[in-house]
Predict the structure.
Amino acid sequence: MGDGGTVAGDEFSELLGQLKERSGLSYGVLGKRLHTSTSTLHRYVNGDAVPTDYAPVERFARACKASPEELVELHRRWVLADARRGQKAGEGAAGESSVSEASVDAVAGGDVVGSGGPEAERGEAADAPVARRRRTVVLAGAAVAAAIVSAALVVNLVPGKSDDGEGGKQSVGAAAQTVDDSPGASESGAAKRRSASPSASRSGTPTASSSASRSAGAGAGAAQDSGAKESASAPTVAVNPYKWDSPCSQHYLVDRKPEQVPPPPSESDARGWVSALGGVAGGQQMLALTVQGTGKATVVLEALHVRVVEKSAPLAWNDFEMGVGCGGGVETTSFGVNLDAGRPATSPKAGQRDFPYKVSESDPEVFYIFADARTHNVSWYLELDWSSGTKQGTVRVDDKGQPFRTSGNVGRPAYNYPLGDSEWGRNEYEPDIPG
């Protein structure tokens, strides 16, 4: 429920309706711009359905000229409405003796978020439940980069020692995909997102045992057992390493001639495009992290660390810009990370407060990380330290078990794809990426 007894889903649809009415655009016009059926938009605005992913919501809001403040508020309302829908779905499933085969297939097939195609093609699967994110906090930097949401990863914890040598914490294993925009995705990500139980297997939500602090004393065992239902395990982290602040801000380095490179993708198709070409983020890479607790207990996010796996000379490949003639991105508070530094670290900028932050199952947190690499090709990942009561641990954040890759692009041949053209051309104003 929202303030004053208003249902969270009603708050969300109400703001959508206000933006739509103010824009003066018809459902038909919006549907064409968003590549979405008018009936689907009707259902969102009327409160009959809540989009599984926030990406179509943001596209709707931007088409209606929403302000930065309205975008943040809409995101908050979407998270609450989405979480409420997930709770209702869980209650309904408990009261039924069977589940339709179509419903099972929709979840197991990972149809909640498609590979960048129109929402109309995803049908009812686009309305499947998933609980995620809320407030937006941005991490920026002279070292990591720019983009927007279409893939999400949930990390698994496995026993081990943290890279920073702190014996009281355990490191985590490779991330497991839960929402993927890459073609042929078959993992049942939606089914994993439905479960927030601390007893989930390694392929789903992190288990309490793998994230517990080794420093917890024996005397605390009984207290932990008595309050097990209220205690929290490691938070889940959904990460999108293909988020764009704007198309013009995103560059990719590709080891191919321009005539061998297909037209630039939309943001939602970026993962498939980059993977098929073996590309690497050039100059900047933007990550969106959504951190959420797995129970009622509050989880404290103590710190976010940058871990460099390998650093070498920047890639001598061609640079391809994803958009031409773009406006500036939305101004947000940010943290800085410099991958070229000897020991990269996050640091607050523009008045943004530093860690710690708090999250719970009903109160997630969204972090944007912008990182730059100018003079190196860097393979890296993040580690998120957390604690809850006597428990503590470290979550590794990476790209499906692989490190993120960001390479400097200064001096590389610059290509763009102007609207109306049918091929890549050398940037006439800056034929080489400026230093």
